[in-house]
Amino acid sequence: MPQVPAEHAAGSDSDRHPRPRTAAVTAWWGRLHGFGPVIGLVLLCIAGTLLNSNFATYDNVMNVLTRTAFIGIIAVGMCFVIISGGIDLSVGSMAALIAGAVIMFMNAMAPVLGSGIAAVAAGMLLAVALGAVFGLVHGLLITKGRIEPFIVTLGTLGIFRAYLTYFSNGGALTLDNDLSDIYSPVYYANLLGVPIPVWVFLLVAVLGAVILNRTRYGRYVQAIGSNEQVAQYAAVDVHRIKILTYMLLGVCVGIATLLYVPRLGSASPTTGLLWELEAIAAVIVGGTVLKGGAGSIAGTVVGAILLSVISNILNLTSIISVYLNAAVQGFVIIAVAFMQRGRR
Fold first, then answer.
1. How does DSSP assign 296-330, residue by residue?
2. Nearest to 221 by CA among 297, 213, 253, 144
3. pTM over 0.70, yes/no
């Protein structure tokens, strides 16, 4: 009986080990893809420095990070929502209504409490509380009402901004001068040379990363985004987790708003305009999958900074008009979504 050569019987080395090589290539590509936003940010910073020497100055860097703080804080909450498979189109309008409500509340409470500091502190707490309540309403409508997140938040996008326009009679709600002087350090003061909003952004991002990666709630959010039915079979209270997720986003909007109000001391129907676009863009550019199930807070932070750098470069140079900044962000969202089309 003919003998089968040993090399044919056992197979070649490449035949016996195809999967480890494929797995190694896949892992390498995954790591490279994860560093994509960081690489893009580095290249943008190099380009910005070459185009304008003022770009790399300390003052400009702090200005970019301060402007990033508002959108970045909201983007942290938006990251949880998108990972869970949801979306929120109302965050800009929500921020506008919260800002107007806080200003009216502070102006009304200062004489009652007899202390501007107490009125400002109470107003800051109100901002966070309103954000949580609005998030709770979104969560209940989506879970108990069984309405798609897109429809719910598209509706509240118009509702929130319409109510602010009504309260302001189409104009602006302005904080009293004395209260504005008390409140302004929340935005303009700094600690160790770093503006307060940047420190708050850093704190929110760190807490968000810990919650997402180190807690049972964070694992449930990712599980729901990956496969909601499987999560239900695994005894996850999907409705409760979704409600908490929208409340978390609302709290982030409240925190961002309480930092934003002292910047101008006013709120108008244009306050927070297109913030939802910027927040969603930051999350998607940061590598979070649009369909849900996977994402990172670190990537979201990098994405938010990257978009702010683009805007800053447009302001410092004359490559294209600054009025096209929203268009650039829109193109970025579409491009990243196109590259993600093969991912879960």
1. -HHHHHHHHHHHHHHHHHHHHS-SS-GGGHHHHHH
2. 213
3. yes
Q: How do the pLDDT tens digits run along the chain, 344 residues long?
A: 455 554 454 454 544 454 556 655 555 545 555 677 788 888 888 888 888 888 889 999 999 999 999 999 999 999 999 999 999 999 999 999 999 999 999 999 999 888 889 999 999 999 999 999 999 999 999 999 999 999 999 999 999 999 999 999 988 999 998 999 999 999 999 999 999 999 999 999 999 999 999 999 999 999 999 988 898 888 889 999 999 999 999 999 999 999 999 998 899 999 988 899 899 989 998 888 888 888 899 999 999 999 898 888 888 887 777 777 778 777 877 877 777 665 55
Residue 98: name the closest of 231, 258, 306, 236 by CA: 258
